[in-house]
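Review box. Two proteins, two foldings.
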Amino acid sequence: MSSDALKKRKSKVLRSEGGTAEIKRGRGELDQHDVRVYNEEVELESRDPEQDYLQYKKSCENLAKLMSEIQKLKAGGAKEGCAEVEQKRMQSCIHFMNLKRLNRLAHMQLKKGRDETHEAKQKVDVLHLQLQNLLYEVMHLQKEISKCLEFKSKHEEIDLVSEEEFYQEAPQEISRPNLTKNDPHQLTLARLDWELEQRKRLAEKYKESQATKEKIQKSIEVKKEHLRSLQPGLNAIMQASVPVQDYLSMPFEQIQKQAEVARHLPPPLYVLFVQANAYGQACDKNLSVSISGDVDEARALSKPPDDSQDDESDSDAEEEQEKTKRRRPTTGGQLDDKRREMLKRHPLSLCLDLKCKDGSILHLYFYYLMNLNIMTVKTKVSTFTELITAISAGELLKSDTLLSCLYTSDQGRETPNPANRYQFDKVGIVSFSDYVEELGYPFMWVQNLGGLQYPSESSEGVLVGSSLSANHMENTMKLLRGRVQSRLALQKQFASIENCIIPVSSDCQHLFPAKIISRLARWTTISHQEYMDLPYTRHVTDAGLAKETDLYFMAVLERGTARLQAAVVLSPRYPEIPPLFSVSLSWKGECSGRTDDNLRAMESEINVFKNELQGPRPGHQLLTNQIQRLCVCLDVYLETEGQDDGVEGPREFPREKMCLRTVRGPNRLKPFKYNHPQGFFSHR
């Protein structure tokens, strides 16, 4: 109870009757209360919490009852300080004091329970810690037991001689058979002693061998010094023999330097270098191989980095990082750097010069893309005499058309390595064909020459093998030489055809009559789309015979008022694949091979019976012979066409050709076949 409440209660007691007695009684109660507080902790052990709860409940009910009685007395008009009200108040105070006492006892019981619980927890923790210590000791003992069980002595790693050999070779003082045969432990010790004795003997032999080796090394050093003294003289002799080497076509010094540089080539270019040299020496003296590029940079690529270089690279990286922090490159710039790094070529490249019989040379430049693991090629053709430039021949000697489809369907526009597709996706490269002009063309035969074989369903990883290169070398060189010769022949033919002159060699004169009146009026290049848009070439495009890799031309033949258009499809593999002609005639209306049987027969004469027009092997004159035969067929077509008798005057196309029959059959087909040496035309 607070001091203020005590003072108020004292003042109230003094105002009431018998105040002195009440004060004495209150002091007596306080003294008794103090004694009770002093004995509460002792009394707490003998108290029942259930009884305290019932007493608490009863005190609350009595207090509520007294409060209601005081309220009724005041409501009934009882004055302040009335004896009955004061008595009720005193009783209420006693109940309050009892409630506070019960509250203290409850808190003391709670604290006591918590203390007992804490002590029990501490005991449990102590027991748990003891348990953990015991478990750790058990685990430690188990580990020690397992170590002991798994222990292997050093002698078990020694490959000792067998027991039979031991008893045969070891002396009696070491083997002691009377003791060791019955005791395995003693036997093992004896075998170890014998092993030690043998090793001591071998160590002595090793020392003797080392001494002999040092003597031999000293003699070798003396001989090396002697050979080094010979080197300047040998160099002088080699320099003096250079004219002799050139005269005999045996450039030993050049070959030696080239072999030294070839050590730094990447594996695919090295395989190509070795195989091309071997093929050139064995089968083709007109094939020469050379290496170009920065040798120092290639040597730096193949050399492992040193510690000093690492330090320098670290400092360079820090400087580069500072620069990048200042510049803050954009995402597009980073992608461009990644693309350039991915498409980076090896600093060394290989050049193959393939010389033809007419003096022309095909230069093949082979490159290796390090990150893509593919090879590319660029070409250049040099001729003995200057070529006459022709507009229509502009695409013949370019890299993309010159080597296109050297093997079937090998266009060299996309990378043959399937792994590159995923690399391109990371740096945003849509198609490798956008970079072939700069990097070269990755033809499949180029990868074969380098020995590169890419993974398929039955193989794993990229393989580099010299056998693959050797298997393709001879055939590829023949195809390349044939391709250059055919393109140079076409170049010369186009130069004449553009001037409306059809060149016919003396070997092919017998294929045509002496007098041909129809003439070539125009020869131009057309695109693939223009060819497809022509109405009389629809059957060729529908059959899939006109591809994007082919070359397309338009020939216009004229005689009088007649005008014949011929759309020509020229395959990159000419003359192996002959040109394909589609004709349309503008005379008395428009007609083509789809509407006129005789024009269809003319197309057959050119396309189907092409073997008669091949000429001497390898048939480079086929195109011009086909155009000349087309002029002959146009003459026959016009001269055998019936004339209107009602028209006066001379015939527009007088009959110059001798024909056995002008027409035959219900289709009224004309005789387009020329018979040599009789000189007449007949039907097929």
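Next protein.
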Amino acid sequence: MTSSLVDEFARGVEDGVRLSKRVYFGKDRSVKQPPTAQSIMSSSYEVVSPMVYAVIYNPGIVDNPDVPSYQPHVHGRCDPPALIPLQMNSISMEAHCSLDTALVTITGSWRLHCVMSSASCDCRLAIPLGPSPLTQGSILGVQAQVTNKSYTTQLVVIGDKAAGDTAKPQDGGFLKPHIFTLSIPQVDGGSNLSFKVTWSQKLIYKDGDFTLDVPFSFPEYVTPAGKKFSKKESIQLNINIGLGTEVVIRTASHPLKEQKRIVGKLAFFYEAEVLTWSNTNFVFTYSVPVSSAFGGVLLQSPSSLSIDQREMFSLYLFPGTDLGKKLMRKEVLFVVDISGSMKGRTIEATKKAVVTALSKLDQLDSFSIMAFNDQTYYYSSNLVLATKEALEEATNWINMNFIAGGGTNTSLALDQAIEMLSGTKQSVPMIFFITDGAVENERQICEIMIRQLKDQGSDLCPRIYTFGIGSFCNHYFLRMLAMIGRGCYESASDPDFIVAQLEALFSRAASTVLMNIAVDGLDDLDALEVYPSVVPDLCSERPLIISGQYKGGFPDTVKVCGIFADTSNYTIDLKVQRATDIPLEKVLAKQHIEQYTAQAWYLQDKKLEEKVAKISMQTGVVSEYTRMVLLETVKEKQATTSSGSKLAIKEINLPKKETTEKARMIKVLQRLGVGFGDLIATRENTPPGYEPKLPDQAEMLVRAAGNCCVDVCGMCCCPCCIQACSRMNDQCAILVTQLCGSLAFLGCFVCCEACCGE
């Protein structure tokens, strides 16, 4: 979603917190009163844990459903709606860690405590799929239960025309790259809601340690009112590293009890009745006490429902602490898009990100910078050593030359970058390509890059690391480009994430320890398919995982070979074993879908697109060719005779009652993929996340409405009553703005008296 929607969500929660002051819980002193606007800053409204909100358009329905109280009448509607955080009754988390991935399930119960029993409203779930976008969270499914209705998400293939008009941001989608939202319609006041959310996220790997970090920190104001409510939280953690070796526990944020310990497998459990909910994320760190590189090959037969009945394998290689210390000298070229669409926050964040990356270079590394739009501009036409003086000069050059303007000539920039880094012998040549736009000749660029890298004939061809900003660039072109260049791809949907995401990409690239990796021993397999087809380099901050499908007999061991920067060779033998309790299909599904999609785009292969869609629907991992829909199932009681036939109207005998379920699709969510770029937006130099502004008069009115009461009492819900006026026509807006100017104080007084009781 765009930053404007993120801001709208935060304002909605702020308004909801103010509006929740209307809910009266009686004289029970154990009840914690709703927080005021002064007691929590706007940063506290950010979603850092699983939350459910009441979506309030009509502030008049806000009341305690159990003990109705006298409430002054409130005029108007909240538009955008206020979001009142619901009280949470229970929460549990289950995580299964395999290889470099965790499959996480959160189950919780919330109560609509702030809407009178005679009214109803939508309820919106917001859940972070990991602590940040760096963990690459991917939603797998949501289930919800409310009274006699149940809801579930499902991936289906729907054409653009069938779903284009029904997908609204408030129905569901990504608020941020790692925060998923979903709305459940018309829940009665006082009802309990249960949610079960499943997603996958990457484990953090650093210095030989694996770390699982799951959002499990809850604000105080979701604690149920009163002492009578039982509050239970629980955590189940299962670890299977796929190796027959010991696992060492480093740290644990919660008091886990060990349930099982087998070589390479661990199980832990935590459960407690609590007074207040957990206020820290669940963080668990473990390691394999092996100093040298280690890994293995897992084999698994496909399930009966799998669309591909070939055998599966997954080869994984971890660098270990010894190999992780053998870092290579680098020759780094930053190729940065400075076209007109990069203006504003995007170019400023990119400046900061590149300067931060430069500061991470070692003095023995060399570098240069290329800015491009219609033309190319060099900091230096030759690579220079990363001395303190050179880095200071480069920073000044960036500040003077990173000025957004002009078009986007990607092909020219990449051609010159490859030429500049050709002929390297003793260092790792790296190109960091940063852009926010799409161009028409992207497939041709990929073909040219394949030829150029092949023709160089060097053991150390330039590595290409790509970084996409916003939704207007073609992320699958960038992914394919990185695959061709044995590099990595990363993205930032919003300028706020550029620095952290680009720093993570550069750090990963800078930790390269082994290159030109090849796997020996697979030549005798039939129908062999390996992905990625070009094996990337091994770095100390991310394990290498390649997988594939085959027919025939797999060898007992395979040999993995590679070279260091000094061209010396490295070889390791990996043992092959059957994976009995690791769900390889789900663990590897996201990787397969992303790589298949890049190939389908490059080859323009419709059959490959259909294959991606089938894998997506089978595993629950979102793709570009499927849409997530919300299904509603209603339990209805149907009268029948003792024989089971439907009851006739004139029949006298008392019938039995049977429960029937009727399921129907009620919502199509927004597209959850990253997309294939927007040539028109790029051509017009549209900044990422751009949205048309409100008319000047309407904007003035919204500002006046939003500030009039806050200055008086600092806690009023006045915006709830007036923001709808932003949609009126210009003449009406001018008239009402003049009226607001003359009656502002009187309006503030009345609103404060009604809404805040002050």
